[in-house]
Amino acid sequence: AQIKGFKGQASATDWVRGVLDLGGWDALDVVAYHDAPMVESGTIEAAVQADSNNILRPIQQKFPNSTKPIWITDAAPTRINSSLGFYNVTVPFQNQEESLKIADETCRYMIAALETGAQKIFINESKPSAAPFLPGHKPTLRTLTTDDGYLNPSAAAFSNLAWQLDSLHFEKKINPTQGINASIFNNQIKATAVLLTQTGSEARYRLPVRWGVTCVDMLGNPVARDAELRNQLVYVTVPAWLINIDAVLQGRGWIINNWLAVALAGVVGIIAAAVFLTKRKTATPNGGRK
User: Fold this and answer.
1) Mind spelling out the 3-state secondary structure of 69-107?
2) Region 16-40: what's the mean pLDDT?
């Protein structure tokens, strides 16, 4: 099948509506668009959602039951281009790159894009620079690599994000407490919540490090027990078939899934009944027969 889609920028709402009005929908296999918010880290999520709405709203209004896949075919996750990485000694000038900030913006963008329903995301520009390692050189929309084409430290965070969310689908977003967002991804076997502090929030949230719950930071490092979330990105993972992730995030005492609790209660009840009947039969001479 031919893959065709919307290749305009995400602000092209009128253009999308015009394509639909002229019958272009039937020629499309994929809804594809470009997205490069180029905004501060704390506003990436809102910008990505707004860009998605600009493209998808006319489609949803005209074809509310569409099942055509959504692709972001040219994604620029961060306004800060990756360049020097760990080259702190070998370059003849000071390395001012903020690798962790680049990693944070990249991950926030990817999570926000997945929340919009995008099934494939093609990241912009990963080729080596034409003028590597020159003072003042600013690469254009490069993600994940350094000037010479090797991996930037932010790629470690990207790799961890892929590992944490592989095979999961976005389910919902909740607020475990005021000022904290939790984007929940689930496949009924495993559930992972991505915890993020809202823009400008000074909220302090104690991470739920407890039995059956795994917490790791943006790079995949285990989070210490009783650690607090402070302007950082953390993944909280539970076995979805056993533990209710909403209850974990909201600090409830009972975290076992209700259906499982009912099933376990039923099993315990059957075992108890069997034991009772066995003891009664044993206590009656000749099994109760005269």
Assistant:
1) CEEEEEECCCCCCCCCCCCCCCCCCCCCCCHHHHHHHHH
2) 83
CA distances for 102 relative to 63, 77, 147, 221, 272, angstroms? 37, 9, 15, 18, 58
pTM of the model: 0.80
Q: Closest by alpha carbon to 36, among 18, 16, 50, 57?
A: 50
Phi, psi of 148 (to 5 degrees): -95, 10
224-272 pLDDT, tens digit per residue, is: 877 888 778 999 999 988 888 888 888 876 667 655 555 655 666 677 7
Quote the radius of gyration of the chain (alpha carbons, Å). Answer: 26
| Residue spans of beta strands (DSSP E) within 13-158 | 31-35, 70-75, 120-123
- For 19, 26, 32, 60, 68, the CA distances from 22, given in Å and listed in that order, are 5, 10, 18, 16, 18
